[in-house]
Amino acid sequence: MxxxxxxxxxxxxxxxxxACFAVFAWYPMVREFVLSFQRTNLVDPPTWVGxxxxxxxxxxxAFGTAxxxxxxxxxxxxxxxxxxxxxxxxxxxxxxxxxxYLRFVVYLPVMLPPIVAVLLFxxxxxxxxxxxxxxxxxxxxxxxxxxxxxxxxxxxxVLVSTWMNMGSATLIYxxxxxxxxxxxxxxxxxxGAGILARIRHVTxxxxxxxxxxxxxxxxxxxxxxxxxxxxxxxxxxENSTVTVAYLMYQFAxxxxxxxxxxxxxxMMLMLALLIFAAFQLRLTRDDRGESA
Length: 292
Prior knowledge:
The chain has helices at residues 2-6, 8-35, 52-59, 62-94, 99-111, 114-124, 131-138, 153-178, 182-190, 195-206, 208-222, 227-233, 244-253, 259-291, and strands at residues 38-39, 47-48.
């Protein structure tokens, strides 16, 4: 009884956290699962349709394109949004002056509301007075139709996403780098290792678990990209930026009475992410066992 009384405050905080998860995470997932087998307009009583919603999603012309665009976005985001924060953290970790100020500058985009960041980049990408085309004009390069061309629209969204989200990843990497014992770097320097050799043989092995965890979080987040295509391109041009999450929105709010199809597509996305997360966690656990 004494142990229970001493931990009563901790149990209270735990119950509050569990209640938040139940209301805002677990219940929506259960509700989506049920909705995927129903036809409803959220006003009249729903009717059960079995797997009809899944068949309708598979037959939609944009289904394959949405998955392909989502995978391409994820791969491009890994090239930019996974590597850039790590390199930025390496640079910040080596600085001796203005480190606190630069941390603030790097983290500032995270503090901005996403809609503000997206609208800022809409001006950057403007084909007329946009900042990016003005910079290209300064170096005598032809302007680009950033969001109006199917060849550049997707990478343009990746740049927006990278700028918006790199601050958090950079600080996590920086914290991991500062936990590396300096004796390891000193020993590597005595052995004649240059900066690239120290990164390869000391930095990356010592931060391997963090890198694997951030890889999983990066993929899970980018596979659900929605704000950027919704606000900047509307899925265009020529469906080149239609993602799975954006297609879910179209099923629910554009096609009419498509909440069940949106739920079915959401279940497919959740299943794909669960399989990937389970595989990634298995790799992380094996890697931790080898390190031990």
